[in-house]
Amino acid sequence: MQRDQNRLRVNAQLIDAQSGAHLWADRFEEDVADLFKLQDQVVARLANTLGIELVKAEAEKAARSKSPDAVDLTMRGWALARTSQQTKEKNNAARALFEQALKIDPNNADALAGSAYTYANESVAWRNPETDYDARTLGQADRAIALAPDTLWAYYVKCVYLYYSHRADKAIDAADAGLAINQNFGPFWGVRGNANLFFGRFEQAKSDIPAINPAWSARPAQGTLDQVFGRCGTWPWAFRRRYRGLPQGNRSRHAE
Amino acid sequence: MQNNKWPYASLAAASALAGKMDDAKTALAEVRRLEPKLTMKSLIPLAPPIPNLFDGLRKAGMPEE
After folding, report:
1. What is the ipTM of this complex?
2. Tens digit of pLDDT for each residue in A189-234?
3. Do A193 and B56 touch (CB under 8 A)?
4. By the 8 A CB rule, do B27 and B43 touch?
5. pLDDT (0 to 100) of residue A20
6. pLDDT value for A232
7. Does B15 touch chain A (CB under 8 A)?
8. Where are the alpha helices (DSSP H) in chain A?
């Protein structure tokens, strides 16, 4: 994404994360004032390429917002928050974008969910003992849901964070709330499946896990937490490999 | 489910512990197909701390080493 005064240029490409194959690329340019038009163009062409309703739904959501700049900042925040090589610096930069967006539009649910996401990331990878992560993560995610009950990423942040902070029962509740909004979001089934396995509800886990739906991979999951609950709703293996500094309390707590 | 082995590992464990050994073997075969070298020893340091996952994978027949 490039911005020059009032022009915004987006080079978009779609890559199959499995094979690395280049599926689609396009360039869009528009006045920043016509941001919605630009978004609609990108989305319409992507939706045509992929035939995916989910993508259209995102565009409609953006069109309902009253503050295009907050939408712009939020989109950039999410792009940064979910990069494949996540670092503390990128996570902080993403948060700064979400906070800027919230200054313009304090009720932007996607920006609230985004900010919550950066705190959830931080709580796992770069925990700061002085920060109240429950308030920053759950508080902001709940506010996002109160403002816009279809903010899928807010439920996602909640269930990942709750599982990570040893509240698997509450993580299931959050996943169920998210599933009530969208049954096709694989990570929710992943949370349910693994939490039920943890609790010894094997039949339940056995029916949850296959519901992890690969259709969701249309929105490639790559960010830090996405590697935790990633494309197929798996558990934090990849994450553990990369961040040895994880709170080791997890292991003993689960072993109780 | 693309080539992500972990959901199959969870499924193999849940199936074995639910007493559905046929399903457990099928899921475990998929794990082994995706990552033939995976063993309990190599898996545990990377896996989530869910004791039932380990018990279930052992019951499904995942080799120790």
Report:
1. 0.91
2. 888 888 899 899 999 998 888 777 544 333 334 444 444 344 333 3
3. no
4. no
5. 65
6. 35
7. yes
8. 35-50, 53-64, 68-81, 88-104, 109-125, 133, 140-147, 152-164, 168-181, 186-198, 202-208, 224-229, 237-242, 249-255
Tell me how far apart the alpha carbons of residues A224 and A236 are, in angstroms, rounded to a whole number: 10
For residue B59, the chain A residues in CB contact (below 8 A) are none
Give B15's contacts in chain A (Cβ within 8 Å): 202, 206
Q: What sign does the dihedral A30-A33-A34-A38 (CA atoms) show? A: positive
Q: Which residues of B touch A211 (CB under 8 A)?
A: none
- Label residue A74 by pLDDT band (50, 70, 90): very high
How far CA A158 is from CA of A9, A63, A227, A240, in Å, comes to 33, 26, 16, 20
Q: Is A205 on the interface with B (CB under 8 A)?
A: yes
Q: What distance in Å separates residue B35's CA from the closest CA in chain A?
A: 14
Of B4, B48, B50, the CB nearest to A232: B4
Domains and CATH numbers, chain A: 1-64 (no CATH), 65-255 (1.25.40.10)
Q: What is the mean pLDDT of residues A140-165?
A: 92
pLDDT of res. A219: 39
B36 touches chain A (CB under 8 A): no
| Contact status of B54 with chain A (Cβ, < 8 Å) | no
Q: Report pTM.
A: 0.63
CB A208 within 8 A of CB A189: yes
CB A115 within 8 A of CB A109: no
**Two tokens, residue A90:** 């990128």
For residue A252, what pLDDT is reported? 32
